[in-house]
Amino acid sequence: MAGEILIVDDERDIRSLISMTLEDEGYQSKTAANADEARNILLSRPPVLAILDIWMRDSDMDGLQLLEWTKGVYPDLPVLMISGHGTIETAVQAIRQGAYDFIEKPFKENRLVLMVERALEAARLTQENAELRTRISEDMAPELIGNSQAMRVTRQAISKIAPTASRVIINGPGGSGKELAARVIHDQSQRRDGRFVVANCARLAPERVDAELFGSESMQASRRIVGLFEQAHEGTLYFDEICDLPLETQGKIVRAVTEQRFRRVGGNAEVVVDVRVISASSRDLVTEIQAGRLREDLYYRLGVVSLNVAPVSERREDIPLMAKHFVKKIADRLGVAPIKLSDEVLAAMQGYEWPGNVRQIHNTIESMLILAPPDRREPVGLSLLPADIQNIPRGSSRSGLDEMFSLPLRNAREDFERVYLATQLRRFDGNISRMANFVGMERSALHRKLKALNIDNMEAAEHAVVAHTIDSEKGATS
User: Fold this and answer.
1) Residue that finishes a domain, picked among 390, 415, 434
2) What is the rounded distance in angstroms from the CA atom of residue 87 to the CA atom of residue 216?
3) Which residues fall within 8 angstroms of residue 327, CB to CB, at 6 or more apart?
4) Angular region, 260: left φ>0, alpha ψ -120 to 50, beta rest
5) If you ran DSSP here, which 8-state letter would residue 107 be given?
6) Is 340 in a helix, a strand, or coil?
7) CB burial of residue 473 (10 Å; 0-12, 13-18, 19+)
8) Of 177, 172, 189, nearest in space to 141 by CA
9) Do β-strands 270-272 and 261-263 pair in parallel, antiparallel, or remain unpaired?
10) Which residues, other chains included, contact 424 with Cβ-Cβ below 8 Å and sequence gap of 6+?
11) Which GO biological process entries does UniProt record here (predicted)?
12) What's the average model confidence in pLDDT over 342-355?
């Protein structure tokens, strides 16, 4: 199993007996003869369980005092107390101070092993419950939504990256799903049972950033703060917007990442951890290095593997899937009935640029769920969407009609078809088969029509829609 069990007893024979018994059962162990040795071991790296003798010779603390100190440093660490001079009062006091259980000497080996198994299982269940509550509260399942080419490439890259121990840098615009991609990497890795810890670099207070990352300790007050690196031990530490960290802290991270060891603020002992680091940024990292905001050595240590997350504008065909996914997810969270999204709403959403990316889609769906009428049997219309997403320029509707009515039927029909088909081509991200199915045309006939209207590629479609919007706005102001 991962981690070690610390055995603290002033009798060498007892330490050896317990150590050999546990190692026969597949556990790893470390031993200490007194409280001073035990504290040094505890501060260097937390064990998975501690076994403390109550009465210890040549020690500045007895077992109960060491228990109190240990719980002040590691509140969740399971502790078993042992003693050859135990009383009911001593056992009760130990359990009140946080010990899992109390065992009298001499003890049978199978009873010791049973108590160790129970203590570790109780600690594991406590941690799993805490992590489950955290995941539910974060409302973010590790799932990438979409079947576009860009999303398929991302999933394929993650399937290769996740099983390795390599450090990863994820790049992509704000709100595109970089943290979600990092969570999927963690969830598909061998560290999935460990914690996924987020360091939001922009929100770390400059005067406290080192303590928050590496922790701090005060021997006089027997007080210790667990930093994010230690919290992510045997798991994944995710740096969101890595360029926002102070340069001095970036230098300390270089050593912590490469050597997997560091000192807490105010501490002397080196802490050893096993952490996979995934970093993310919405900026161009080469530009940040040239501007002096990102250390080059940190970039090369963090960026063993690079992963790009495409903006929503480059994976428009995923928008209906994302929208429907968020409808169900957010409706469950808000405790409201879900809504049905009409084809015109989905078309408008696919035609919008989404500068805020996935996060903006999430917020838009949440707003629609809140503002939708109580009767949700019929699909909702465009009126629930913000005006800019409806893709209707302000004041352009009447002028556009006036201009169309001033044209001969053939010209008006041609203008309408050009804008309509250009918009649909953008909506389906150039996928002619899906577009033909939606507009109700044979694929070959649609190809001929697009060629005749000079919009047989995405660049021409973008130009046609932009030109129509500009002409409409000019008409509205004239």
Assistant:
1) 390
2) 37
3) 338, 339, 341, 365, 369
4) left
5) -
6) coil
7) middle
8) 177
9) antiparallel
10) 347, 435, 438, 439
11) phosphorelay signal transduction system; regulation of DNA-templated transcription
12) 87
Angle of CA points 185, 330, 427, to nearest 5°? 75
Domain range spanning residue 255? 139-310
Q: Tell which of 277, 310, 343 closes a domain.
A: 310
Instruction: Determine the pLDDT at residue 391.
Output: 59
Q: Does 263 share its domain with 320?
A: no
Q: Give the CA angle between residues 258, 264, 266 to the nearest 5°.
A: 145
Q: How far apart are CA 241 and CA 202, in angstroms?
A: 7
Cβ neighbours, 10 Å, residue 411: 11
Q: Say whether 391 sits in a helix, a strand or coil.
A: coil
Evaluate if residue 276 carries a pLDDT over 70.
yes
Q: What is the pLDDT of residues 215-230, one digit of tens each?
A: 887 655 456 678 899 9
Question: Domain check: are 114 and 187 in the same one?
Answer: no
pLDDT at 419: 79
Name 419's bridge partners: none
- The 10 Å Cβ neighbour count of residue 381 is 13
| Residue 466: pLDDT over 90 | no
Q: 48 with 19, same domain?
A: yes
Count: domains in the chain: 4
* Phi (first) and psi of residue 280, to 5 degrees: -145, 155
pLDDT at 133 over 70: no
Taking the alpha carbons at both ends of the chain, their separation in whole angstroms is 76
Statement: residue 393 has pLDDT above 50: no
- CA dist 171 and 179 (Å) reads 10
| Prediction pTM value | 0.64
Mean pLDDT, range 153-175, rounded to an integer: 94
Which of 196-205, 228-237, 369-378, 435-444 shows the lowest mean pLDDT across its residues?
Answer: 435-444
